[in-house]
Design brief:
This protein is an all-alpha fold. The chain is about 75% helix and about 0% strand. It has one domain: Farnesyl Diphosphate Synthase (Orthogonal Bundle), CATH 1.10.600. The protein has helices at about 1-10, 15-20, 20-30, 40-65, 80-100, 105-120, 130-150, 155-160, 165-180, 190-195, 200-230, 235-240, 245-260, 265-290. It is a multi-pass membrane protein.
Amino acid sequence: MPFAAYRRALPLLRIPFSVYLMPIFWFGLSALRQPFSPARAAGVFIVLHLLAYPASNGYNSYYDRDEGSIGGLKSPPKVSAELLHLVWLFDALAVGGALLLNWWFALLVAIYLLVSKAYSYEGIRLKKYPLASTVVVVVFQGLYTFLMTQIGVGASPAEIYHPQNLLLALVSTLFLCGSYPLTQVYQHQEDSRRGDQTLSLRLGIRGTFVFAGLGLLLGATTLAAAYFWRRELPNLLLFLLATGPVTFLFLRWARAVWHDARAADFDHTMRMNQVSSLCLSVAFVLMLLRHLL
């Protein structure tokens, strides 16, 4: 049955995994000081997290054809042509939904979708180049998405392009720079089989954790400087409190990996993603509520 084939392909869109990118959405909103429409914010969330990101995930899965665990799926189903049909549908819905908010947001969503395809498409496949793939991911899922979220909710150009806001946007990219290699650390065998020289593969398992730690530390330091500049010390305190569990989990995981490289596995990676996404989202939501209330 055709519908059964589409139902089997649907998990490869990895919609729950897309939720792990929520912190950038909340971070972008928490940085705004002018009022915005909650309805528009909900629309942006739906377009990005329920449509655009799943379309990107599905397209990546279509060309990766992973045989082992991937982000959000320990045992992914076989790739089929129906998956690509779902990707095109979600692409169209994402751009169409973005158009309902504003033209600029729709254009940015369309560009994001095109870049994500260049990341995976076998004729280009930026993913096989460690530096190019890292730059694309940390910029487009970090700074670009941060600003795209603000444009989607209708923030003014003056607020979006204010130096303080741009510094916070840079912070989002620095955090992605630290966390992105960790998402690759358990896939070295799969990536090697496909010929994808990912950053984590180049760094090695221990090198990945050192790089991640330095990236996250640089991001946190820059964020602290930004909050000092904006005179938002309560936000800095909220961030430090909320990310305490993340720091503890990362250090404990790094220690385990140092003693046994097999600890750099799917389960540990997903747990790190879940905890960091939840804690960061809570921090930025509290900052947003503090400003609104």
